[in-house]
Amino acid sequence: MEKALNRYSRKRNFEITPEPAGDAVHHRPRKDSDAPVFVVQKHAASQLHYDFRLELEGTLKSWAVPKGPSLDPAVKRLAVQVEDHPLSYASFEGHIPEGQYGAGDVIVWDQGEWEPEGDALEGYRKGRLRFSLRGRKLSGSWSLVRTGGGKKAAKKEQWLLLKKRDDAARSGDGDILKERPESVVSGALLRDDEAVRQSPNRKSPRKRKARSSRPVSIPEQFAPQLATLVTQPPPGHWRYELKFDGYRILARISAGDVRLFTRNGHDWTARFPAQSKALEALALGDSWLDGEAVVLDAKGMPDFQALQNAFRRHRSQDIVYYLFDAPFLDGEDWRNRPLEERRMALEERLQRQPAEAVRYSETLEARDYRDIYSRICDMSLEGVIGKRANSHYTSRRSPDWIKLKCRLRQEFIVLGYTDPGGSRPGFGSLLLGLHEAVGSKEILYAGRVGTGFSQAALKELSTTLRKLERKRSPVAHPEQVPDRRGVHWVQPKLVCEVEFAQWTDEKYVRQATFLSLRSDKQPREITYEPVLPASGLTSPQDQAPPPEASRSKDSGRVNKKAHEQVAGIAISHPDRILDEDSGMRKVELARWYEAIADWIMPELKGRPVALLRAPEGVGGEQFFQKHMQGMAIPSLRKLDPGLDPGHAPLMEINSTRALVGAVQMGCIELHTWGATKDRIERPDRIVLDLDPDPELPWRYMIEATRLLLSVLDDLQLESWLKTSGGKGMHVIVPLARHAGWDTVKAFAKSISEFMTAELPERFTARMGPRNRRGKIFIDYLRNHRGASTVAAYSVRARPGLPVSVPIRRSELEQLSSAAQWTTGNLQQRLRQLSADPWQGYSNRQRLRQSMWRKLGAKSPG
After folding, report:
1. 397, β-bridge pairs
2. Active site members
3. What is the pLDDT of residues 798-850, one digit of tens each?
4. Cβ-based neighbours of 221, under 8 Å, separated by 6 or more
5. Which CATH class is domain 563-672?
6. Composition bias, kind Basic residues: at what positions (predicted)?
7. CATH superfamily membership of 408-525
8. Could you give the CA distance from residue 790 to residue 729 in angstroms, rounded to a whole number?
């Protein structure tokens, strides 16, 4: 490092300049969890410029950026590389005297942590360094790209500093340099913000109180920031809070009126009269506050069941609303202020008028996260939330908020086993049991465990199990054991230790992992234990089982002959895991479709359907099936072969049995034609699929959808919305069955081309990733004969099993993504709906010549 700082030291006389000496600090104390620092220093030398510095190889790699960083991805800033600076320079503010190198005032305009994408040293040496910033003013993804210009001999290599498109980007929307000119350390400003050389008597930069935020009109609707599930914190500095076991609630205060909303935007103010009154008493200006509603048990621990009871009994006085963030406070936007400042301001407001119904969520204090995590888990709590120090508030799932969930472990009696599936040796899963209480003779079924076995354990344990086989079940109530066909019962003599995520309502283990056999425990001792989570970090999964899921949560596969009945259809391989992220089994997907049949069947009946089949689940091979092709799918209707001459017959799903039958044959997604079977040559809808560049922030999709709706409104065409379940949105325009396929496709293409011509920087009418870069493709190609679109309420064959969901226009601004609803949470939405989002949908509209003229196009007919 000394050699790297030689140029820095040679340029400065440290007896005159207050800058830190190059050999003053060789290394800063570091922990493995520390992230490298970055700093941007605003420097009023002969010309005002910004010095951009990244900690790398023990020094601050430095670039002079004449025009300063820009949050606009379309703007490229020249960055001239200068000499490395010592790490101690990151906190330097002050006046460099006249006659010294770089004479003038310096303030710390921004600082924080940075994280490279890939190998930082390799990227730096190759001249293409990609990274993320987490500062007070700059955040998100960036890159430095060497251009090859500059004077090599003088080491003045030229680079470009570029902002990548993400939620932190601001395309042409304001200038962060003008909006936030102050130091993030002292609040100081440079005099007049001009590029002037300072006199020798020039004092240090004058100080002022840093501006905390800017006055705004708070939004009508607001989406919360969500945490990302992790097994341990990424590098960086984190602040920890308790992970509450309750309901996430957002409070909107406008002109003194308090409204309380769920994270999905449902107004629950009537359920929280005590909390509303307490918030009113705070006398806050217009605000959005973020928190969680819980009920505490006698030990002061959150109790979710007690919370539900409080709602049923209308006892809001039993509920505590813990507030932990303030994205908008007293009429000002605090989202881009550091986490600590937002929380400090929130705590100060709550202390003005303390109330039992509304409290502040305290920061957990300990040496590191392991101490906090162990303490929380030992208290039988759900886990902890970590929030990156100095991070901003963003209305999406963010890596700046993380969650660490506790898992449970205890001993169980081994009751039996299932045959192995596929190439697995030994057995598939173990059936678990225990006594309800000490001294009880009855053994109760407690679920299954199918993971955590080594090959040696499978072989050794299977030998022992076969020696203990018996015909009669040791379970007190064997009829309560699901999937009994193919189970081999054993004498209840073995005890094993299992780790698991939680107990289900039926007291079955969920997401269980085998740890070991326990020879030191006797079966008669094994009962339901107090919740005793394991210390340390494991690999928790964060997908709640769907309400209609079966009671068994076996993560392996049962005997190939085993099956379960759903809607009168025998589901083979019912325990086959279709999606590792959610843990959903094949039989659960069949039950899920059965449960929502009333919603999806109107979208399927009468239309040709194409099936996306994934027999081995989301991670396996997937293929489309558009025709019967001689395959017998239970209850699926074969359509008239004349509807699609030259092919096998088209298919229709016109009953719940047929819907479940499709799942039985490995189908996950359902796609329908834009016409019905009785008038197949006359489509009854236009489908416009907004397909974005995956790098675009979600707000771009919201804006694009809004713009497209405005154009359709101007054409006097009613339109309806649904999420795609993927990355984009689907806009549906219902039609009277009047025009043919060619006309409908041409009209859809005209809309796409019109939007592209009007806003070429945002839209493209040409398909393909190359044409979509930084843009949204308005896909009109779904409107030709034989094309299909994923049906409303269909599951998507993607990790997490998202669903394509109809929404009201008023819900658009609240959406956090096109995959917001999944098989795990859609039914909750459906139960809370007061009306069908597509209520009033009808096929009466025709394409008129005036519409073609407005689009600057001609009708093919």
Report:
1. 226
2. 243
3. 988 999 999 999 999 889 889 999 998 898 889 888 889 999 999 999 999 99
4. 261, 265, 813, 814
5. alpha beta
6. 203-212
7. Nucleic acid-binding proteins (2.40.50.140)
8. 11
